[in-house]
Structures are given as structure tokens and as C-alpha cells.
Design goal:
The chain is of the alpha/beta class. The chain has seven helices and nine strands. The radius of gyration is 17 Å and the shape is globular. The structure holds S-adenosylmethionine. S-adenosylmethionine (SAM) is lined by residues 9, 20, 54-56, 59, 74-77, 80, 103-105, 120-122, 125-126, 175.
Amino acid sequence: MTSPASDYFFDAYNREEIAYGMEPSAALQAYLEQLGGADGQVGDRPIGRAVDLGAGAGRDSIALAAAGYDVISVDLSDRGLARINERAAEHHVAERIRTNLCDVREFDFPENHFDAVIATTVLDHIPALDAQIVWQRMCDSLTDNGMLYVQVHTTEDPGSDVAPGNTRQVPVSETAGAVINYFRPNQLAAWAVAAESRLRILRYEERLEWDYTHGPEHQHGKAILLAVREGFHPDWFGQPAAFPKQS
Ligand SMILES: C[S@@+](CC[C@H](N)C(=O)[O-])C[C@H]1O[C@@H](n2cnc3c(N)ncnc32)[C@H](O)[C@@H]1O
């Protein structure tokens, strides 16, 4: 059990207005919406199992459960995990979510097991060498129809101690102190295209964004990756939704 003193995110998750809000990550939500149109299947399999690493207070976990996944929510903050359990009950998805108070570096990733692996800003909260090890475990744990969604803070973020972030005169996040591993331009993309990752990229973006979901308004530099296992080509992702067939 963590205590408020040892849990960096305790205050953020203890507020009535819980940090990061309830809106799931946008690209993840877009993927899940198309899944809903695919009759509860991913390719030729049922929707299946998901793991949400650094799940926080669970905005992505709840969306995954609502889309039909059985979700394991992993985090070091038991205040965050308690909020996930509350929210899961409120959204009638409690039976689909299991919380796990665990360091992502200690988590057991079975190979070829998860149909969705989510890591929304956690690989940047651990040292670079550890992040690369966890990344490879994440990739190896994906099934043939698996999807991987990752967000990390980049050196464009004003909390970064290197350029260009550290030259930018914009407000920094209240929780920037927890980010210790800002990703360089293209670094996450390079990991995604490495042969041993065995991924196919559906979306990749590096961007600046304003954040109003916790504390005083501030800006972030982020890299966002949505990928599937190489060889998986869901015909319902992307163009059919953006450019629907006209009847
Ligand atoms: C910026 S928050 C993001 C929360 C959530 N993914 C979201 O987007 O709403 C980062 C989360 O990672 C968790 N975290 C940081 N280091 C961790 C580690 N080594 N193992 C597990 N969780 C960790 C923190 O407790 C925190 O909840």
C-alpha cells in the first residue's frame, strides 16, 4: 500500500475533479469506436484482453472495458487504482477491470497474450534503459491481432531539461517532476519500426498540446503512437471511418 507521501500522484487523484478527466486518449478512442462497429471481434477473434500500464485514475481503462476488453489496470498509485474501481462501478464495467498495484518494470507480461497494450505517459516516467526493456516486453505480449497505444512526453515539452523544450516560455505541468525520460524527436517512431518490435504503425504524431485536465493550464510536447501487430490489417480501421462509402 502506498501512502500520500510516497505517491507522487496522490493529490492529483484525490481531488473531486480527478486529474486527466474522463475523456480517453483521442486516438485510442477512435480505434475503439471502430471496434464497436466490428461485431465485438478484432479480426477473427473476440475483443479479448487489455493491459493499461500507468493507468492513473483510469480514463483509458474505463473506455477499454466499455468497448468489451477485460482490462488489467497497472499503476504505482493505489489512490489512482481506488478511483478506477469507483469509476468502473459507476460505469457498470467493474467486472471487466482488475487493478494491480505494481511497477510496470515488475509486471509479468505473458507472450502473445494481450489484444491491447496501452501505455499513456508511463514509459517517460521510468529511466530510459528500463523503458526500452518494458517496451520490448509490451511488444512481445501482443497477440497477432493486437493493438498497441503509447503516449510519451518529448523534448519539445516545456518541462524538458534539453532543447527545444527548455527554451520555451510556456507554463509547465504541475506533475512534470515525475517525468524523467523525455523522448527525442522520432525516438518512439524508431522503436516502433525496429524489426524486433513486429509492429505496423497506424498513426504516429509528434505535437504540442494545451492541457486543461489538471492544475493550472499548461502545455505538453507529446509523441503518440497507435500500432498493430505486423501482418494484421483490419479493414475497418482508418479510411472507412474518415472517408465512408457513400450509399
Ligand atoms: C501522467 S500519469 C498518466 C495516467 C493515465 N495513463 C492517464 O493518461 O490518465 C502517469 C501515471 O504513471 C504511473 N507510474 C509512474 N511510474 C510508474 C511505474 N514505474 N509503474 C507503474 N506506474 C507508474 C503514475 O503513478 C501515474 O498514475
